[in-house]
Design brief:
387 residues; seven-stranded mixed sheet; 11 helices; FAD/NAD(P)-binding domain; alpha/beta; globular
Length: 387
């Protein structure tokens, strides 16, 4: 079986998944074009955790990104009482590498540097596609068409490609809202390389350092969908919710300007039984959107990219390659989706008695069991051949 070189692949979306997929496919000898509806590539200052599976994927893609090595991760109750403290050395020894904190902007820049600008087409809003069997056409908002041999939807939670491919409706509201911010770390009591996650009644707050001496934080609370900021803005809303938490939490909120805070309702989709058909497939959030509680969204998108590129070198038939990709990735990614949603449900508990039980269970969780729970996600994925 020879590689599928000379194929032209159309990739919709230039987020982390789309850029990584373009790199992997180009390295596999495929001609790629990336179409992004925005007129410029601009990421927020949000932070990401790159777990060992994400590190392996970045290495396979030949992407180097500025990172801050993580020493330990702590889970605390809202008052600051330790529930569990995880040394990253345990994870490094078991999975071959540790965890790193990176800026989403830095990762995007590193992916673009590796890919180059030539395949990127900005301000190109895709409205739909047709797959007559021997090629794929995509339609743009201005009415013109682009034709390719394969189509990859990397256009996120509300993917246009997924909408036509799976016809599974709109995502559903999870019942929680997430605020995010980035602040200068000077004078704030967070040890460098130490990530902390606090949990309370129906709420959580996390914070970790970025490589450029800033701290990324995120706050999650149960809220009605579509809520607007109060008359005094996001900061006052958050201080009302988190002002009595351990000192570092309100200190991070207070240091962040209202204009620098980003608020989004959290939406999700149920795991799909397939995400490929004919000459069309999906990657990243378009294929398997997941809540942020496992820190795996970017890592799973990177895994998708590497797997799809590898599959296109293992068969001479385009549709076989997409079926092989789905077989390699679907079950593994959906396990992470379910684990992330389960973690979200745990955070959303607001009954004080149930919260106390939850916190006690976390405190008593054996480290060996915790590591076994991570095996499905962080261990190297098995290779699955064609039947």
């Amino acid at each position: 079986m020879g590689p599928l070189n000379r194929l032209k692949t159309l990739i919709v979306g230039a987020g982390i998944g789309g850029l990584a997929t373009a790199i992997a496919l180009r390295d596999a000898g495929v001609d790629v074009k990336v179409f992004e509806r925005s007129n410029e590539l601009r990421e927020s200052g949000a932070g990401l955790m790159i777990w060992p599976n994400g590190t392996r994927s970045l290495q396979a893609l030949g992407v180097e990104v500025r990172r801050l090595a993580v020493d330990r991760i702590s889970f605390r109750d809202w008052r600051g009482h330790e529930l569990i403290d995880i040394s990253v050395d345990m994870i490094s020894k078991r999975y071959g590498s540790g965890i790193a904190f990176v800026s989403r902007t830095d990762l995007q820049t590193a992916l673009i540097t590796r890919l180059g600008r030539q395949p990127l087409n900005l301000g190109a809003e895709v409205c739909g596609f047709k797959d007559p069997g021997d090629h794929v056409d995509i339609t743009f908002g201005d009415g013109h068409l682009a034709t390719g041999d394969l189509l990859v939807g990397a256009d996120g939670l509300r993917s246009v490609v997924r909408r036509e491919l799976l016809r599974d409706g709109e995502p559903f509201y999870l019942g929680s809202t997430i605020w995010r911010g980035v602040v200068d770390s000077d004078g704030l009591a967070l040890d460098r390389g130490h990530g902390v996650n606090w949990v309370g009644r129906g709420s959580e707050f996390l914070a970790f350092d970025l490589p450029d001496d800033r701290i990324y934080w995120a706050a999650v609370t149960r809220e009605p969908p579509g809520e607007k900021p109060g008359p005094e803005g996001h900061k006052q809303d958050l201080l009302e919710r988190f002002g009595r938490w351990q000192d570092l939490v309100p200190a991070l909120i207070a240091r962040t300007s209202d204009a620098a805070m980003v608020r989004n309702d959290m939406y999700d989709r149920r795991p799909s039984s397939h995400w490929s058909r004919g000459r069309v497939t999906l990657v990243g959030d378009a294929a398997h959107p997941m809540t942020p509680n496992q820190g795996q969204g970017a890592c799973q998108a990177l895994e998708d990219a590497v797997a799809l590129g590898r599959c296109l070198t293992q068969t001479s038939n385009a549709t076989d390659a997409l079926r092989l990709y789905e077989r390699q990735r679907l079950r593994r990614a959906n396990r992470v989706v379910r684990a992330s949603r389960q973690a979200t449900r745990g955070v959303q508990i607001d009954n004080p008695v149930l919260c106390a039980i939850r916190d006690t269970l976390v405190r008593l969780l054996p480290r060996t069991l915790m590591l076994r729970m991570l095996d499905d996600t962080l261990s190297a994925a098995p290779s699955i051949g064609l039947s």
